[in-house]
Write a structure and sequence with these properties.
The protein is α+β, with helices and mostly antiparallel strands and about 375 residues long. The protein is about 15% helix and about 45% strand. It contains 5 helices and 17 strands. A hairpin with a 5-residue loop joins strand 11 and strand 12. The termini are far apart.
Length: about 375
């Protein structure tokens, strides 16, 4: 059961951003550390055409809802959802592909480009993206981050990436080193190794509490966590939290309100107690890019069919029962049938461990001249 994180629990998240900034600075400047003039030139070359941005975006959320009750006479409760907002910050240096246009004069953090997830960009050399946004949407708070630094050459690719997607509940560091084989100017294949740091996905803290029928022995678990149940002498039961506060006056509230929170707190605590796991995987991928003013197709894909089994207790091999396949990919298609009519399809899909996250957009445009 997923539990929403509080703002205080996000305090360690910027570590991914700081780490990647350090990597890019060291990689671009280490050779010139003792030569100030060359260091300045290297920094200028590294960040040339890069854009730093920060913005606050907001708007109203869903409208208030009236909830009626007739238990003790007619009562009306208004459930209000606070307004939506996002605080975005970042820096990006990614060459726009032929089909991409910059929609706004200024970056405000709401821009979404499917091509950012591609293995290979438009140009050779360094490209990078460091982007984070703290978002409240329909009352739920998330911190989303996507940072990467990649270097593309004729025959090899290197990339370091950090992803924290609060909506999909996925977070990981990824390092990859690949050999690249080009077939003409549009198609290339790549293969190599990937190393990923992440929590032990697949681990279920509640597994040891499951009964033979698949249900959870939740009362025993709650008692272990410090909760207490006392008979009131009238045939009822009162339930208290670890601090001695009364949290439920009957079994219905105990099972419907308190127990779900107990399970959520327990699973989060047990997962947080575990160290990150390091996963070594073999990867094969491709990238195809074709562009004209009336037709374009950009597609990429990655598949990890084999993962090294280190035989550790929380290896995903144990939860899955052997090898598994992780993959990611994207497709961007556009076709201008004539000067008025055009079709487009854009999307990406990712599946890592037992998590998947995806986005897509499909539609038609018709311009009247």
């Amino acid at each position: 059961m997923k539990r929403e994180r509080t703002p205080a629990e996000y305090k360690v998240k910027p570590f991914g951003l700081f780490l990647l900034i350090i990597v890019i600075l060291l990689s671009s400047c280490s050779a010139y550390a003792q030569q100030p003039s060359k260091l300045k030139t290297s920094l200028k070359r590294t960040f040339k055409f890069a854009t730093f941005y920060g913005a606050v975006n907001g708007g109203n959320s869903i409208s208030s809802v009236d909830v009626y009750s007739v238990t003790n006479g007619l009562t009306t409760t208004v459930i209000e959802t606070p307004f939506d907002y996002s605080i975005a910050f970042g820096v990006r240096k990614i060459a726009r592909l032929g089909y991409e246009n910059r929609a706004n004069v200024f970056y405000d953090g709401t821009e979404k480009s499917f091509s950012d997830a591609a293995t290979i960009g438009k140009v050779k050399g360094f490209e990078f993206l460091f982007e984070g946004d703290y978002t409240r949407q329909q009352g739920n708070v998330f911190l989303n981050q996507n940072h990467f630094l990649r270097y593309v050459a004729d025959n090899w690719i290197a990339k370091i990436e950090y992803v924290d997607d609060g909506f999909a509940d996925i977070e990981f560091f990824e390092f990859s080193q690949r050999y690249r084989y080009k077939i003409g100017k549009k198609l290339s294949f790549n293969t190599g190794a990937v190393q990923r740091f992440a929590e032990p996905y697949g681990y279920d803290p509640l597994a040891e509490w499951k009964l033979a029928n698949g249900n959870i022995h939740y009362t025993q678990l709650a008692l272990q966590e410090g909760y207490n149940a006392q008979f009131d002498g009238l045939g009822g039961v009162l339930y208290y939290d670890p601090n001695g506060n009364l949290v439920a006056e009957n079994t219905q509230i105990w099972e419907g309100v308190v127990i779900p929170q107990v399970l959520a707190d327990y699973t989060k605590r047990k997962r947080d107690e575990l160290d990150l796991t390091l996963q070594y995987s073999f990867v094969v991928g491709f990238d195809f890019y074709h562009y004209t003013k009336t037709f374009w197709l950009h597609s990429w894909g990655n598949i990890m069919p084999y993962h090294f089994d280190d035989s550790k207790e929380y290896s995903y091999h144990n939860f899955h029962g052997g090898q598994w396949i992780d993959y990611s990919g994207g497709l961007i298609f556009g076709y201008k049938i004539n000067k008025s009519l055009g079709l487009f399809l854009e999307g990406k899909y990712n599946k890592y461990w037992n998590r998947n996250w995806h986005d897509f957009s499909i539609g038609v445009n018709y311009v009247i001249f």
